[in-house]
Design a protein that fits this description.
The chain contains 18 helices and 13 strands. It is α/β, with parallel strands linked by helices and 467 residues long. The protein has 3 domains: 65 residues; 134 residues, 2-Layer Sandwich (Alpha-Beta Plaits), CATH 3.30.70; 243 residues, EAL domain (TIM Barrel), CATH 3.20.20.450. Helix 10 runs parallel beside helix 12.
């Protein structure tokens, strides 16, 4: 039995006592009332009124008991509210570690096997995890569900040893699965005394999880500091641009440049847009942040644009779908007297937007202004294939997996077919992360339109490109 289930049983028992004790008290009152008091009508009425009051009391306790359950009905782990209460009470926090356990493929499980089986998998994962911890002599470990396939755990142990143990559990689950269903588990750890506010520590765990998926070094910045950093960058224009050139194979010229914006901070140096992306999205800064980047970018590149120049800038799809962004862009380019034909808006989304018809109309309106639309990380774990079927895409930039696995026969064939498909649809293609001559020669044979990477050029400041 899970520790959470034991606590829930204790809670239900306490509620039962609260119901039963007044019942015996009511009987005693009735017995002594008839012995000690006269059998008058007022006495009878007063005693009778105690019955509906007691019935109301019972229903209140039952309703409140179900309403304030300590455990999640699906997994039987603690609810998010309860696990936070438990964590806040445990002292000293410096001896404990907070673990965020994430079932990475729960969405795929729900879609493939059904939500009911998905719920069973989540419950069994917690049962297995609890058994694993018990076997490692961690008794009564509080595990709480934080929504979806995310679970928050508080464990008293050294971080390095705990990392080793959790990696073992991760591999065990990957090897044996749950009910013949493959399970992929990720986890991240932060010290329980990371911040006095437990919500800040939880947010830190989610940031670490996102960064681990992107294989980017985690930042030692607390979430509440990020908002200040972003606001400071927006207010003081502390944004620095570098440009990654791409070679056009047909003309053998470098005329396409991908913009890599970074935030300049005093305490933490340069921060890439990817590193702060979660905080920008969480705080609802996508539109404001993109507007500021484009405004500063236009001021920098305007004097150097020539007839053939193409500038590719990553723009949040959420920003493009914001009805107030297009008037801003239209006014900005008109006032600065810059032709939109020089600019490519690159989008990347994990899941398909639900109203594809509306999204198509929005992108067509940008194309009518002169902008081109690029699709990033094509062929990766995102909505890229669905998007080329329904959206007016001009360029696709292939996911890094194709570059890494170009020697794999299956990946090479898929890569080649995607290129043929794109060209048949009138879409240009780009391969990225080409860092060596041998890799360049292999990729070049696939007949792409653009190739980008350190072999072509490292990211440079604008003045370095123009030298």
């Amino acid at each position: 039995m899970l520790y959470s289930e034991e606590k829930e049983r204790e809670n239900r028992f306490a509620i039962a006592l609260k119901i039963v004790f007044p019942f015996f008290l009511l009987i005693i009152i009735f017995v002594y009332a008839f012995k000690l008091f006269t059998h008058s009508i007022p006495t009878f009425i007063l005693l009778t009124l105690l019955i509906p009051i007691y019935v109301y009391y019972i229903f209140y306790l039952i309703y409140n008991g179900f309403r304030n359950t300590l455990i999640d009905p699906v997994t039987k782990a603690f609810t998010r509210k309860q696990i936070i209460k438990i964590i806040e009470k445990i002292k000293p926090k410096k001896a404990y570690q907070l673990v965020l356990l994430h079932v990475d493929n729960i969405g795929d499980i729900n879609e493939r096997y059904g939500v009911i089986n998905g719920d069973k998998v989540l419950k069994n994962i917690i049962v297995e995890f609890n058994a694993f911890l018990t076997h490692q002599h961690f008794k009564n470990t509080p595990i709480g569900r934080c929504g979806g396939g995310n679970f928050l755990v508080m464990i008293r142990h050294h971080e390095k040893e705990l990392l080793h143990l959790l990696t073992r559990f991760q591999k065990e689950m990957k090897h044996k699965g749950i009910n013949d269903i493959e399970v992929k588990i990720d986890f991240v750890i932060v010290s329980a005394d990371y911040d006095y506010d437990i919500d800040v520590s939880i947010e830190r765990l989610y940031i670490l999880l996102e960064e681990s998926k992107k294989c980017e070094a985690p930042l030692n910045i607390k979430p509440n500091e990020f908002e200040f950093i972003v606001n400071e960058a927006l207010c003081q224009n502390n944004i620095v641009f570098k440009y990654q050139p791409a070679l056009c194979l047909e003309s053998r010229e470098i005329n396409l440049f991908e913009v890599l914006p970074k935030l300049q901070t005093k305490e933490h140096g340069m921060l890439s847009k990817t590193q702060i992306e979660r905080i920008v999205n969480y705080g609802g800064y996508e539109k404001i942040f993109d507007e500021k980047i484009i405004s500063l970018l236009l001021d920098e590149v305007k004097p150097f644009l020539n007839q053939k120049s193409l500038i590719s800038i990553d723009i949040s799809a959420v920003t493009l779908r914001n009805t107030r962004f297009k008037p801003f862009i239209s006014t900005l380019f008109r006032e600065k007297k810059i032709n939109p034909h020089h600019f490519i808006f690159e989008i990347t989304e994990k899941n398909s937007y639900e109203d594809m018809g509306r999204f198509r109309e929005i992108l067509l309106s940008y194309k009518a202004m002169g902008f081109k639309i690029a699709l990033g990380d094509f062929g990766g774990n995102n909505a890229s294939v669905e998007y080329i079927k329904q959206l007016p895409i001009d360029i696709i930039k292939f996911d890094i997996e194709f570059t890494k696995k170009i020697d794999d026969e299956i990946h090479a064939k898929v890569f080649q077919h995607y290129i043929h498909l794109a060209h048949d649809l009138g879409i240009q293609t780009m391969a990225k992360f080409i860092d060596k001559e041998a890799l360049f020669d292999k990729i070049k044979a696939f007949n792409l339109d653009f190739i980008q990477g350190f072999y072509i050029s490292k990211p440079k400041k604008l003045e370095e490109i123009l030298v």
